[in-house]
Every structure is written in structure tokens, then in C-alpha cells.
Amino acid sequence: MRTNAISTANLWNSPRMGVARAQAEIATANQELVTGRHADMGLALGSRTGAAFILRQKLAELTALRDGNDTTSLRLSSSQTVLQQIQSGADATLKTLIGAPPDQRAEIVRKAATSQLAALTAALNTSAGGQSIFGGTNTLESPMAVYAGTPSSTAKQAVDAVFAFQLGTRGSAALATVTAVQMSSFLAEPNGAFATLFNDANWALNWSDASDTTIDSQVSLTDRVQTSVSANAAAVRDVAKALVIASDLDLSSFSAEAQDVAFERIADLLGSASKGLVALQADLGRSQATITDANTRMEAQRTLLTKQIGQLEGVDVAEAKTRIDQLTTQVQISYSLTSQLRQLSLVNYL
Q1: 54-304 CATH fold
Q2: Among 217, 209, 44, which residue's Cα sits nearest to residue 134?
Q3: pLDDT for 147-186, tens place per residue?
Q4: pTM of the predicted model as reported, rounded to 2 decimal places
């Protein structure tokens, strides 16, 4: 018969190893209690780990689209507000033109148009989230220079040059001799000397640094919509054209017949511009509606994916708490047992 020696050291170390394992399990259970997920996803899910990864990838994609839609919605709402302001300014100028007494019309309309032209420039230079909202894809710089600034903008220089060449010096008596036919020819679309200042090439050269290409945004997994308006839009150009005629062509120096031609042209431009601005707002409104619908669908999809992920990765929080309590009790018992074993000594029995 053989007996194995049992040392005091072995008795001390045995519960100590159990404590180390219990503490590791407590740490794992605490992590699961806090996160609500398995601490070791691969160990817990096995072959289903790939499915959980795919679900999380889809959820992240939907979340990114949803967050991006918040920025896009800000740009759209800001654009709508500015377009409404520009339309209101155009309509107000037209009302002033229609309601002004004939003998005072040129000066009254000039003052109103000068104010509205400055407001138009400021409106088109509006930014949201650090980006120019009317710059098209060129969002890093303001598209419009101040028309009557110091020094003179290239746009005003071009208008001054054409005016002097076609009609004469501002304020001169010679302007009174300009006929209605000459004024009509000067303002005629699309090839009149004044009208050509606002064609695509000259608008880009003298007036606007905006891109013709507007921004398209992916607003859902399947939807992509236009989410900006360029300062190069025809309706915007019509507003600018009408305001420059009214504010900078020195209409009071012309004959009544020539003024009537100019006022009729201003009214036509403001009327067509107002309609064009309404159309632009309608286009943005459809994009806003698409984003609202997309957000609703994506929220439903996110809810479903979150539920599916929870079913795969989730742990029973109550069970995790019970396991922590049990393991904590075991550790406390181990500590107590170790303390008692450390008191064992032959000296106490001699």
C-alpha cells in the first residue's frame, strides 16, 4: 500500500487556481451584463457568426444613409427657404413696377431693384454646414460676387461696356434719343447685346463660379435624388437680368417709349422667373418627400435588423447577473477556505 504526501502548499494553491478561473468568468459575465451581447461571439455563435456580421453590416449601411439624410435635409430646407426669398423679392419688384406712377416709375423701380439685386447675391451665397448650397458640385466657394461692389465686379464691367457701346454714356442727353426699337433690339432674347451677357458662356465667365451640375444624393438603398439647385439655373438668371435692367441701365434718361419697352421686358423676366423658381421648389419638394419616405422605411428596416441581431448576439441579462452572483459567492468561499488553510500548522498541535 502506497500513500501520497499532501503538502500544505498544495492545499493553499488548489483554491487559488479555482479563484483565478472564477474571476475570469466574472469578468466575462460582467461584460455580457453591460453590453447585452456574448463576450466571445465566435465561441457562442459558431457557424452563425457570419450571419451576425452580415446583419451588422446592413445595419451600419442603413445608419450611415439615415445620418447622411439629416445633412441632405438641412441643405434642402435651406435651399427652399432661399428660393422662397428670391421669389418673394421678384414678386415684390414686379408689384412695385406695376403700381408705380408712370412719371416716377424709373426711379422707384431702380431703388427697389438695387436693394433686391444685393439681396439676390447674398441669398445665392448662402451656406449650410460649411458648404455653398447654390454652388452645384462646387460647394467650397461662394458662387456670386457683389454686382456693384468696389472694385466693380466683372459682371458690372461687362454691362458697362455693352451699355456704352450700344446706347451711349450714362446720364448723357444722347440717351433720350434712343428709340423703342433700339431698346427692344438691345434687350431682345436671345441675341440682343444685353441678353448675351447672361448666356451660358458669359454667365460662367462674369457672374457665377457655380457648377452647372447639381448634387445627387443616395437617400436609401434604392433611391437617388437631386438635392441642390445651382446659381446657374435659368430662373435665377432671369431674376438677375431683370434687376440689372431696372437698377443699372439709367432708365430715367430714356424716352417714355424706350422706358416702356424696358419695363415690359422687366415684367416678362420677373414673371417667367417666378414660375421657374416655383418649379425649382417643387423639384426640391419631391426630393424632400422621397427622403421622408426613405427615412420611414429605413427606420423600420433598422428596427427589424436590430431585433435579428439581438436574437443572435443577445444574452439573458438576468442569467448573467445570477451567474455573477454565484461566481462571486464561490470566490468569497475560496478566499475564506484559503484563509483557514493558511492557519494550519503543526506548531499549533505541538
Answers
A1: f41 fragment of flagellin, N-terminal domain (1.20.1330)
A2: 209
A3: 988 888 999 999 999 999 999 999 899 999 999 999 999 9
A4: 0.80
